[in-house]
Amino acid sequence: MKILGVETSCDETALSLVDFHGDDSISSEVKFKVLGETLLSQAALHAEYGGVFPTLAKREHAKNLTPLFEKTLSDAGMLIPGESTVNSELLTEILYREKELLDLLVPFLATHQKPDIDALAVTVGPGLEPALWVGINFARAVSAAWNIPIIPVNHMEGHLLIALVEEGRRQKVEGSENSNAKDENIFYKLHSPNYPAVTLLVSGGHTELIVSEEPLHYRLLGETRDDAAGECFDKSARILGLPYPGGPEISKLAKKAREANAKSPVVLPRPMIHEKNFEFSFSGLKTSVKNSWAPEMDIAAFAREIEDAIVDVLISKTKRAIEETGAQSIIVSGGVSANTELKRRMELLTEGQGVQLYFPPRDLSTDNARMIALAGYLQRFSSPIKIEAQGQLPLGSSQTT
Ligand code: KG4
Ligand code: ZN
Q1: Is the CB of 234 under 6 A from ligand 1?
Q2: For 222-232, what is each residue's pLDDT tens digit?
Q3: Global pTM?
Protein backbone atom coordinates (compact mmCIF):
# COMPACT_ATOMS: atom_id res chain seq x y z
CA MET A 1 0.00 0.00 0.00
CA LYS A 2 1.53 3.30 -1.11
CA ILE A 3 0.89 6.32 1.09
CA LEU A 4 1.99 9.92 0.59
CA GLY A 5 2.63 11.57 3.98
CA VAL A 6 2.10 15.36 4.09
CA GLU A 7 3.51 17.38 7.00
CA THR A 8 3.13 21.17 7.39
CA SER A 9 2.23 21.62 11.07
CA CYS A 10 5.16 23.85 11.94
CA ASP A 11 8.26 25.04 10.09
CA GLU A 12 9.06 21.96 8.02
CA THR A 13 7.43 21.30 4.66
CA ALA A 14 7.76 17.56 4.17
CA LEU A 15 6.46 14.84 1.87
CA SER A 16 7.21 11.14 1.99
CA LEU A 17 5.99 8.45 -0.34
CA VAL A 18 6.13 5.14 1.49
CA ASP A 19 5.28 1.62 0.38
CA PHE A 20 3.92 -0.54 3.25
CA HIS A 21 3.71 -4.30 3.54
CA GLY A 22 2.14 -6.58 6.13
CA ASP A 23 -1.42 -5.43 6.20
CA ASP A 24 -4.04 -7.27 8.01
CA SER A 25 -3.63 -6.58 11.72
CA ILE A 26 -1.73 -4.20 13.97
CA SER A 27 0.22 -7.06 15.47
CA SER A 28 1.44 -8.40 12.14
CA GLU A 29 4.91 -7.28 11.18
CA VAL A 30 4.92 -3.92 9.45
CA LYS A 31 7.62 -3.37 6.86
CA PHE A 32 8.03 -0.41 4.60
CA LYS A 33 10.30 1.19 2.09
CA VAL A 34 10.63 4.84 1.21
CA LEU A 35 10.06 5.49 -2.48
CA GLY A 36 10.63 9.23 -2.50
CA GLU A 37 11.02 11.85 0.20
CA THR A 38 11.57 15.61 0.42
CA LEU A 39 11.87 18.00 3.34
CA LEU A 40 12.46 21.71 3.40
CA SER A 41 13.19 23.33 6.74
CA GLN A 42 12.28 26.96 7.24
CA ALA A 43 14.26 27.14 10.50
CA ALA A 44 16.77 29.64 9.08
CA LEU A 45 13.94 31.95 7.95
CA HIS A 46 12.28 31.89 11.36
CA ALA A 47 15.59 32.30 13.20
CA GLU A 48 15.36 36.08 13.32
CA TYR A 49 12.01 35.88 15.12
CA GLY A 50 13.48 33.49 17.69
CA GLY A 51 10.63 31.08 17.02
CA VAL A 52 8.17 30.07 14.34
CA PHE A 53 6.21 32.91 12.75
CA PRO A 54 2.86 31.43 11.58
CA THR A 55 2.09 33.59 8.53
CA LEU A 56 5.61 33.15 7.20
CA ALA A 57 5.30 29.38 7.73
CA LYS A 58 2.00 29.33 5.84
CA ARG A 59 3.44 31.25 2.89
CA GLU A 60 6.52 29.06 2.68
CA HIS A 61 4.47 25.84 2.77
CA ALA A 62 2.24 27.17 -0.02
CA LYS A 63 5.26 28.07 -2.14
CA ASN A 64 7.16 24.83 -1.54
CA LEU A 65 4.59 22.02 -1.58
CA THR A 66 4.15 21.73 -5.36
CA PRO A 67 7.87 21.64 -6.28
CA LEU A 68 8.48 19.17 -3.44
CA PHE A 69 5.58 17.02 -4.65
CA GLU A 70 7.06 16.96 -8.14
CA LYS A 71 10.50 16.00 -6.79
CA THR A 72 9.08 13.30 -4.51
CA LEU A 73 7.16 11.69 -7.38
CA SER A 74 10.13 11.99 -9.68
CA ASP A 75 12.51 10.35 -7.13
CA ALA A 76 9.99 7.53 -6.74
CA GLY A 77 9.92 7.11 -10.52
CA MET A 78 6.22 7.98 -10.40
CA LEU A 79 6.06 11.33 -12.18
CA ILE A 80 3.93 10.83 -15.28
CA PRO A 81 3.65 13.90 -17.53
CA GLY A 82 0.47 14.03 -19.58
CA GLU A 83 -2.82 15.84 -19.49
CA SER A 84 -5.31 15.12 -16.69
CA THR A 85 -8.86 16.34 -16.84
CA VAL A 86 -9.17 18.20 -13.58
CA ASN A 87 -12.18 20.08 -12.35
CA SER A 88 -10.57 23.54 -12.05
CA GLU A 89 -13.72 25.04 -10.58
CA LEU A 90 -13.72 22.54 -7.73
CA LEU A 91 -9.96 22.96 -7.17
CA THR A 92 -10.34 26.74 -7.12
CA GLU A 93 -13.05 26.35 -4.51
CA ILE A 94 -10.90 24.05 -2.36
CA LEU A 95 -7.91 26.38 -2.64
CA TYR A 96 -9.71 29.72 -2.38
CA ARG A 97 -7.75 30.60 0.76
CA GLU A 98 -4.46 29.38 -0.70
CA LYS A 99 -3.87 31.56 -3.75
CA GLU A 100 -0.16 30.78 -4.03
CA LEU A 101 -0.75 27.04 -3.75
CA LEU A 102 -3.58 27.26 -6.29
CA ASP A 103 -1.33 28.98 -8.85
CA LEU A 104 1.30 26.27 -8.63
CA LEU A 105 -0.66 23.13 -7.85
CA VAL A 106 -3.55 23.30 -10.32
CA PRO A 107 -1.33 23.60 -13.45
CA PHE A 108 0.80 20.76 -12.06
CA LEU A 109 -2.19 18.48 -11.50
CA ALA A 110 -3.58 19.31 -14.96
CA THR A 111 -0.33 18.34 -16.69
CA HIS A 112 0.41 15.09 -14.84
CA GLN A 113 -1.38 11.80 -14.61
CA LYS A 114 -2.52 10.10 -11.46
CA PRO A 115 0.38 8.19 -9.89
CA ASP A 116 -0.13 4.82 -8.21
CA ILE A 117 -0.78 6.21 -4.70
CA ASP A 118 -3.41 4.53 -2.49
CA ALA A 119 -3.88 7.24 0.12
CA LEU A 120 -2.76 10.67 1.30
CA ALA A 121 -1.93 10.89 5.01
CA VAL A 122 -2.00 14.49 6.20
CA THR A 123 -1.26 16.08 9.57
CA VAL A 124 -4.42 17.78 10.89
CA GLY A 125 -3.03 18.73 14.31
CA PRO A 126 -1.72 19.62 16.74
CA GLY A 127 0.21 22.54 15.29
CA LEU A 128 -0.13 26.04 13.89
CA GLU A 129 -3.55 26.22 12.27
CA PRO A 130 -2.64 28.42 9.27
CA ALA A 131 0.28 26.08 8.54
CA LEU A 132 -1.84 22.94 9.02
CA TRP A 133 -4.50 24.24 6.62
CA VAL A 134 -2.01 24.53 3.75
CA GLY A 135 -1.14 20.84 4.00
CA ILE A 136 -4.80 19.85 4.42
CA ASN A 137 -5.91 21.91 1.43
CA PHE A 138 -3.02 20.54 -0.63
CA ALA A 139 -4.20 17.01 0.22
CA ARG A 140 -7.84 17.90 -0.50
CA ALA A 141 -6.94 19.29 -3.91
CA VAL A 142 -4.78 16.29 -4.87
CA SER A 143 -7.51 14.00 -3.55
CA ALA A 144 -10.19 15.78 -5.61
CA ALA A 145 -8.12 15.92 -8.79
CA TRP A 146 -6.90 12.36 -8.77
CA ASN A 147 -9.50 10.63 -6.63
CA ILE A 148 -7.19 9.46 -3.82
CA PRO A 149 -8.60 9.06 -0.28
CA ILE A 150 -7.28 11.14 2.64
CA ILE A 151 -6.29 9.80 6.06
CA PRO A 152 -6.12 12.56 8.72
CA VAL A 153 -3.18 12.08 11.10
CA ASN A 154 -2.32 13.28 14.59
CA HIS A 155 1.21 14.72 14.43
CA MET A 156 2.09 13.43 17.92
CA GLU A 157 1.04 9.92 17.01
CA GLY A 158 3.47 10.20 14.10
CA HIS A 159 6.30 11.16 16.47
CA LEU A 160 5.42 8.26 18.76
CA LEU A 161 5.20 5.60 16.07
CA ILE A 162 8.37 6.58 14.23
CA ALA A 163 10.32 5.85 17.43
CA LEU A 164 9.45 2.19 16.89
CA VAL A 165 11.25 1.99 13.56
CA GLU A 166 14.18 -0.35 13.68
CA GLU A 167 17.39 1.44 12.99
CA GLY A 168 20.59 -0.14 11.79
CA ARG A 169 18.98 -3.39 10.83
CA ARG A 170 17.75 -2.27 7.47
CA GLN A 171 17.12 -5.24 5.26
CA LYS A 172 18.46 -5.22 1.74
CA VAL A 173 16.08 -6.77 -0.70
CA GLU A 174 17.72 -9.40 -2.86
CA GLY A 175 18.16 -8.59 -6.52
CA SER A 176 16.55 -5.17 -6.38
CA GLU A 177 17.03 -2.96 -9.42
CA ASN A 178 18.70 0.41 -9.35
CA SER A 179 16.41 3.38 -9.16
CA ASN A 180 16.48 7.09 -8.43
CA ALA A 181 15.16 6.73 -4.91
CA LYS A 182 18.04 6.55 -2.44
CA ASP A 183 16.35 4.09 -0.08
CA GLU A 184 14.57 2.13 -2.77
CA ASN A 185 16.04 -1.22 -1.84
CA ILE A 186 15.92 -0.81 1.92
CA PHE A 187 13.11 -2.17 4.06
CA TYR A 188 12.44 -0.70 7.47
CA LYS A 189 10.77 -2.77 10.16
CA LEU A 190 8.62 -1.69 13.04
CA HIS A 191 9.19 -2.97 16.60
CA SER A 192 6.23 -4.17 18.66
CA PRO A 193 6.93 -2.85 22.15
CA ASN A 194 5.84 -4.65 25.31
CA TYR A 195 2.80 -3.15 27.04
CA PRO A 196 2.03 -1.11 29.03
CA ALA A 197 4.23 1.39 27.21
CA VAL A 198 4.92 4.88 28.50
CA THR A 199 5.74 7.56 25.95
CA LEU A 200 7.52 10.82 26.65
CA LEU A 201 6.77 13.22 23.81
CA VAL A 202 9.11 16.18 23.94
CA SER A 203 9.11 18.75 21.17
CA GLY A 204 9.05 22.49 20.62
CA GLY A 205 5.32 22.56 21.33
CA HIS A 206 4.72 19.58 23.59
CA THR A 207 5.85 17.86 26.74
CA GLU A 208 3.57 14.94 27.47
CA LEU A 209 3.64 11.61 29.26
CA ILE A 210 1.28 9.06 27.76
CA VAL A 211 0.49 5.48 28.66
CA SER A 212 -0.65 2.84 26.15
CA GLU A 213 -2.10 -0.42 27.42
CA GLU A 214 -2.27 -1.72 23.85
CA PRO A 215 -1.21 -0.56 20.36
CA LEU A 216 -2.77 2.70 19.11
CA HIS A 217 -4.50 3.46 22.42
CA TYR A 218 -3.30 6.44 24.36
CA ARG A 219 -4.10 7.92 27.76
CA LEU A 220 -2.54 11.20 28.79
CA LEU A 221 -0.82 10.97 32.17
CA GLY A 222 0.24 14.60 32.28
CA GLU A 223 1.66 17.46 30.28
CA THR A 224 3.24 20.86 30.65
CA ARG A 225 1.20 23.65 32.17
CA ASP A 226 3.06 26.28 30.17
CA ASP A 227 6.22 26.05 28.03
CA ALA A 228 7.32 22.81 26.40
CA ALA A 229 10.80 21.37 27.01
CA GLY A 230 11.94 22.26 23.48
CA GLU A 231 10.54 25.75 23.91
CA CYS A 232 12.55 26.10 27.12
CA PHE A 233 15.70 25.10 25.23
CA ASP A 234 14.83 27.58 22.45
CA LYS A 235 13.96 30.51 24.75
CA SER A 236 17.00 29.93 26.98
CA ALA A 237 19.22 29.82 23.89
CA ARG A 238 17.79 33.13 22.76
CA ILE A 239 18.59 34.68 26.16
CA LEU A 240 22.17 33.43 25.75
CA GLY A 241 22.34 34.96 22.26
CA LEU A 242 22.36 31.58 20.49
CA PRO A 243 20.51 30.93 17.21
CA TYR A 244 17.16 29.13 16.77
CA PRO A 245 16.50 26.23 17.18
CA GLY A 246 18.25 26.44 20.53
CA GLY A 247 18.16 22.80 21.66
CA PRO A 248 21.07 21.58 19.55
CA GLU A 249 23.09 24.75 20.37
CA ILE A 250 22.71 24.36 24.13
CA SER A 251 23.42 20.67 23.83
CA LYS A 252 26.69 21.28 21.93
CA LEU A 253 27.91 23.75 24.56
CA ALA A 254 26.84 21.47 27.41
CA LYS A 255 28.84 18.64 25.90
CA LYS A 256 31.94 20.87 25.77
CA ALA A 257 31.47 21.79 29.43
CA ARG A 258 31.14 18.14 30.42
CA GLU A 259 34.34 17.29 28.56
CA ALA A 260 36.16 20.15 30.31
CA ASN A 261 34.51 19.27 33.63
CA ALA A 262 33.19 22.84 33.85
CA LYS A 263 30.28 23.39 36.22
CA SER A 264 28.07 26.42 36.56
CA PRO A 265 28.25 28.24 39.92
CA VAL A 266 24.56 29.07 39.42
CA VAL A 267 22.12 26.27 40.20
CA LEU A 268 18.84 26.53 38.30
CA PRO A 269 15.49 25.25 39.65
CA ARG A 270 14.06 21.86 38.59
CA PRO A 271 10.39 22.92 38.41
CA MET A 272 7.82 20.48 39.84
CA ILE A 273 10.40 17.70 40.20
CA HIS A 274 9.14 16.71 43.64
CA GLU A 275 5.43 16.99 42.91
CA LYS A 276 3.78 13.63 42.82
CA ASN A 277 2.14 14.02 39.44
CA PHE A 278 3.04 13.93 35.76
CA GLU A 279 2.84 17.63 35.13
CA PHE A 280 5.61 19.90 33.97
CA SER A 281 6.26 23.62 34.02
CA PHE A 282 9.21 25.14 32.21
CA SER A 283 8.39 28.82 32.00
CA GLY A 284 9.78 29.52 35.49
CA LEU A 285 13.03 27.84 34.51
CA LYS A 286 13.30 30.14 31.50
CA THR A 287 12.75 33.13 33.82
CA SER A 288 15.51 31.89 36.12
CA VAL A 289 17.81 31.55 33.11
CA LYS A 290 17.01 35.15 32.23
CA ASN A 291 17.60 36.41 35.76
CA SER A 292 20.84 34.53 36.35
CA TRP A 293 22.61 34.89 33.02
CA ALA A 294 25.42 37.42 32.70
CA PRO A 295 27.68 37.55 29.62
CA GLU A 296 30.86 37.27 31.70
CA MET A 297 29.79 33.80 32.86
CA ASP A 298 31.11 30.60 31.25
CA ILE A 299 28.44 30.03 28.62
CA ALA A 300 29.21 26.32 28.18
CA ALA A 301 28.95 25.60 31.91
CA PHE A 302 25.69 27.55 32.08
CA ALA A 303 24.29 25.68 29.04
CA ARG A 304 25.17 22.44 30.81
CA GLU A 305 23.20 23.55 33.87
CA ILE A 306 20.18 24.42 31.66
CA GLU A 307 20.32 21.04 29.96
CA ASP A 308 20.74 19.23 33.29
CA ALA A 309 17.77 21.07 34.80
CA ILE A 310 15.47 20.13 31.89
CA VAL A 311 16.72 16.54 31.65
CA ASP A 312 16.52 16.00 35.45
CA VAL A 313 12.83 16.90 35.38
CA LEU A 314 12.07 14.74 32.32
CA ILE A 315 13.88 11.73 33.85
CA SER A 316 12.27 12.10 37.25
CA LYS A 317 8.71 12.26 35.86
CA THR A 318 9.36 9.36 33.49
CA LYS A 319 10.69 7.29 36.42
CA ARG A 320 7.49 8.03 38.32
CA ALA A 321 5.43 7.01 35.28
CA ILE A 322 7.27 3.67 35.03
CA GLU A 323 6.65 3.00 38.73
CA GLU A 324 3.02 3.94 38.63
CA THR A 325 2.00 2.16 35.42
CA GLY A 326 4.30 -0.86 35.57
CA ALA A 327 5.55 0.11 32.12
CA GLN A 328 7.40 -2.56 30.17
CA SER A 329 8.59 -0.10 27.52
CA ILE A 330 9.57 3.54 27.33
CA ILE A 331 9.24 5.43 24.07
CA VAL A 332 10.88 8.84 23.81
CA SER A 333 10.11 10.95 20.76
CA GLY A 334 9.76 14.48 19.36
CA GLY A 335 12.53 16.96 18.51
CA VAL A 336 14.08 16.96 22.01
CA SER A 337 14.62 13.17 21.81
CA ALA A 338 17.64 14.06 19.62
CA ASN A 339 19.29 15.25 22.85
CA THR A 340 22.18 12.93 23.67
CA GLU A 341 22.19 13.69 27.39
CA LEU A 342 18.48 12.79 27.61
CA LYS A 343 19.19 9.54 25.81
CA ARG A 344 22.14 8.71 28.06
CA ARG A 345 20.07 9.34 31.20
CA MET A 346 17.13 7.29 29.86
CA GLU A 347 19.52 4.41 29.20
CA LEU A 348 20.76 4.67 32.80
CA LEU A 349 17.18 4.77 34.07
CA THR A 350 16.04 1.64 32.23
CA GLU A 351 19.28 -0.38 32.39
CA GLY A 352 18.83 -3.68 34.18
CA GLN A 353 15.14 -2.93 34.88
CA GLY A 354 13.72 -5.15 32.14
CA VAL A 355 12.19 -2.06 30.52
CA GLN A 356 12.60 -1.68 26.76
CA LEU A 357 13.73 1.73 25.53
CA TYR A 358 12.88 3.21 22.14
CA PHE A 359 14.22 6.39 20.57
CA PRO A 360 13.59 7.34 16.93
CA PRO A 361 16.44 7.23 14.44
CA ARG A 362 18.13 10.61 15.01
CA ASP A 363 17.25 12.01 11.57
CA LEU A 364 13.57 11.24 12.24
CA SER A 365 13.32 12.78 15.71
CA THR A 366 12.33 16.20 14.38
CA ASP A 367 9.32 16.84 12.13
CA ASN A 368 9.15 14.71 9.00
CA ALA A 369 6.53 13.20 6.71
CA ARG A 370 7.64 9.58 6.96
CA MET A 371 6.12 9.44 10.44
CA ILE A 372 2.87 10.87 9.08
CA ALA A 373 2.68 8.21 6.35
CA LEU A 374 3.36 5.55 9.00
CA ALA A 375 0.67 6.84 11.38
CA GLY A 376 -1.73 7.07 8.43
CA TYR A 377 -1.06 3.48 7.51
CA LEU A 378 -1.61 2.19 11.06
CA GLN A 379 -4.61 4.42 11.61
CA ARG A 380 -6.69 2.05 9.55
CA PHE A 381 -6.97 0.11 12.81
CA SER A 382 -8.40 2.96 14.89
CA SER A 383 -11.38 5.28 14.52
CA PRO A 384 -11.18 8.18 12.07
CA ILE A 385 -10.44 11.76 13.01
CA LYS A 386 -11.78 14.90 11.36
CA ILE A 387 -10.17 16.41 8.27
CA GLU A 388 -9.81 19.94 9.51
CA ALA A 389 -6.97 21.79 11.17
CA GLN A 390 -7.12 21.18 14.90
CA GLY A 391 -4.38 23.25 16.50
CA GLN A 392 -4.85 21.68 19.94
CA LEU A 393 -5.68 18.12 18.85
CA PRO A 394 -4.96 15.82 21.81
CA LEU A 395 -3.47 12.40 21.22
CA GLY A 396 -6.04 9.63 21.38
CA SER A 397 -9.00 12.01 21.64
CA SER A 398 -10.87 10.22 18.90
CA GLN A 399 -9.49 6.80 19.61
CA THR A 400 -11.36 5.71 22.69
CA THR A 401 -12.97 2.32 22.32
O1 KG4 B 1 9.39 17.85 16.97
P2 KG4 B 1 10.01 19.12 16.52
O3 KG4 B 1 10.87 19.08 15.27
O4 KG4 B 1 8.95 20.21 16.23
C5 KG4 B 1 7.80 20.38 17.00
O6 KG4 B 1 6.81 19.68 16.71
O7 KG4 B 1 7.90 21.21 17.92
O8 KG4 B 1 10.85 19.68 17.74
C9 KG4 B 1 11.63 20.84 17.65
C10 KG4 B 1 12.26 21.12 19.01
C11 KG4 B 1 12.94 22.48 19.10
O12 KG4 B 1 12.49 23.11 20.28
C13 KG4 B 1 14.41 22.14 19.21
O14 KG4 B 1 15.17 23.08 19.95
C15 KG4 B 1 14.38 20.80 19.89
O16 KG4 B 1 13.29 20.14 19.29
N17 KG4 B 1 15.61 20.03 19.67
C18 KG4 B 1 16.48 19.73 20.66
C19 KG4 B 1 17.57 19.04 20.04
N20 KG4 B 1 17.31 18.95 18.71
C21 KG4 B 1 16.11 19.56 18.50
N22 KG4 B 1 16.46 19.97 21.98
C23 KG4 B 1 17.47 19.53 22.71
N24 KG4 B 1 18.55 18.88 22.22
C25 KG4 B 1 18.64 18.61 20.90
N26 KG4 B 1 19.71 17.97 20.40
ZN1 ZN C 1 6.80 17.73 15.93
Answers
A1: yes
A2: 999 999 999 99
A3: 0.91
